[in-house]
Amino acid sequence: MDSKKSLYLPDYIKAISPYQAGKPIEELAREFDIDIKNIVKLASNENPLGVSRRVTNVIEKYSSGIFRYPDSNGFNLKDILAKKYNVPFESITLGNGSNDILEMISMTFLDRNSSAIYSEYSFAVYKLATQARGARHIIVPSVNYGNNLDAMFNSIEPDTRLIFIANPNNPTGTFVDKEKIINFLDNVWEKYGKSVLVILDEAYSEYLDDDLYFDSFSLIKHYPNLIVCRTFSKAYGLAGLRVGFSVADKDITDFLNRIRQPFNVNSLAQIAAIASLEDDEFLKKSRLLNKVEKKKIYKAFEILGLEYIKSYGNFVLVRVGDARSINYSLLRLGVIVRPVDSYDLPEWLRVTIGLPEDNDFFIKALSEILK
Q: PTM N6-(pyridoxal phosphate)lysine: at which residues (predicted)?
């Protein structure tokens, strides 16, 4: 074939494997001819309570205005976030979910002559975002399925520009406490300054118990190389609307906003996020449900003799052995969970904490399969 007429792609783009999302309910219904009412989805770490009633009310109120472009700068949402978290307005970047923020960070600071560090069992987007820029991966072995911060620090090389840390970690659910995070930030800042940026990805922080939760946004004043990312997709239930944000030093935020798409967060997502932040009761209810039902899932796994990892998010990673076969059997029974073989965890399944009846259905199905 004439090379002048063939499609050109960089090798690092050709090597990308697409992100594998949780199987949609409608797809399973078609595949196995199952009534949608009889399907339980525990695959994507969504909030089983849905969204706050305030969210549905505000969407109904403002839906007639969707013919207008959204506020490109998201002034109202950023204003409320700035006040809620006591951060400068100019330090906030809005994203089409926190995935968008992670992509923006990699697009801004990575190229073919740089590298990024992340744990071997961490969010798949870190790998994808690094690979899409042609940058080099430095994958650090985990400790007890979690982030090994000492090893991450010792893995920094002259071309390292970014370090991704999910806390709590996805897909394993592990957590690094405040003291260890601060010690790591001290070390990186003292030796490398702004030349190495640390991304603290806190998608599941709202599910932390009060004694573990800490104000990571306040750390940015002491560590100008820190970027903290949050999302409304998990505890707030806005996964379908796609809205997230980051807080960072103003200089970093300025560069992120230069490459941010002009209308990356739609109008309904912005007003829904504002409404979510105003409903503390819904968040408390979501956290309590998750805490109670997670204990039930733990107990079920213990009865079945299955190894699991204590989780600080709204999901649990469980070792079932032949995960591919068991996942297929669960699908046939109408239960969608998340295989994690793409994370090099072929014996494990990740199970989202659902409603009580959904969790009971899953436990019954898994028990039948393992008989």
A: 234
